[in-house]
Amino acid sequence: MANFFVDRSRITGNTAHITGDEAGHIGRVLRMRPGDGLTLCDGEGMFYDGVITALEGGSVTAEISRAYPAPTEPKVKITLFQAIPKNPKLEFIVQKATEIGAVRVVPVNTARIVAKLDKESKVERLRKIAAEAAKQSRRGIVPEVCAPVSFDKAVEMAGGLDLAFIPYEEERRLPVRDFLRGKNAGTLGIFIGPEGGFEESEAALARSAGITPVTLGPRILRTETAGLVAAALALYELGDME
Question: Please, are residues 162 and 209 in contact by the beta-carbon 8 Å criterion?
């Protein structure tokens, strides 16, 4: 069935009221009608199967037959701390991180970045991309896209997570696979550097805060590739891609 997001406040008992862009998509684009089935997601981890009962005045009403936890959400909640790359790489990263299963993307100002994310409108666009990707990939939530933070602040934020690692080109002994193997984490932070990589002082700060340097292999990956590879490896090793 088709999948749509609806705010939980718009669900009362067994009735859902869908408005805005989603209602327009249902009625004008897909030309759905009363009696058609659909699946709703409240963005907070719950799915609802239902049937359209009415379309009028730019809104859609549906009767819910079943509510259940979204089966698409990973067991481990990944935060991607992404050094800000040149446009449009960050848009690609947010989209694909959402598809893979990240719950939060934090743009980070590191020493060697050459681009800035200095307008709220740019952050809002990234949030819209995350919402669209969440819908396409049938996520149970829309990942949070944060306003940019400093590297020091990102390290501080990672302190509240169960595990965190930082792929670093000078680390050649500890593969991310070996770091994660046998571990059980509910939350995980992944730090990805910019096109020019992390400065040694940044890697040292991360290490001192308990963020483990790892290697992703013998090849140098682009910044828009490294985070996606690291997230996929982490989900696999922590038992989410079985």
Answer: no
Convert the pLDDT of each residue in 124-136 to its tens digit.
Answer: 999 999 999 999 9
- Sign of the Cα pseudo-torsion (47, 48, 49, 54, in order): negative
Do 17 and 97 lie in one domain? The reply is no
Task: Please report, for the domain that includes residue 45, its CATH number.
Answer: 2.40.240.20
**DSSP SS3 for 51:** strand
Question: Omega before 88 cis (within 30°)?
Answer: yes
Tokens representing 9 are 């406040």
> Which secondary-structure segment (H or E) carries 213?
strand 212-214
Tell me the residue range of the domain where 178 lies.
Answer: 77-237
- What whole-number distance in Å separates Cα of residue 145 and Cα of residue 79? 10
Other C-beta atoms lying within 10 Å of the C-beta of residue 80:
26
Question: In this predicted structure, what is the pLDDT of residue 1?
Answer: 67
Question: How big is the CA angle at 105 (ends 24 and 211), to the nearest 5 degrees?
Answer: 165
Model pLDDT for residues 45-85, shown as the tens digit of each residue: 999 999 999 999 889 999 999 999 999 999 999 999 999 99
- 82-109: string of b/e by CB count within 10 Å (b at 16+)? bbbbeeebbbebbbbbbebbbbbbbbbb
Residue 242 lies in a domain: no
Q: Mean pLDDT across the stretch 84-92?
A: 93
Euclidean distance between CA atoms 4 and 18, whole angstroms: 9
Name the residue among 118, 117, 141, 119 with its Cα closest to residue 130.
141
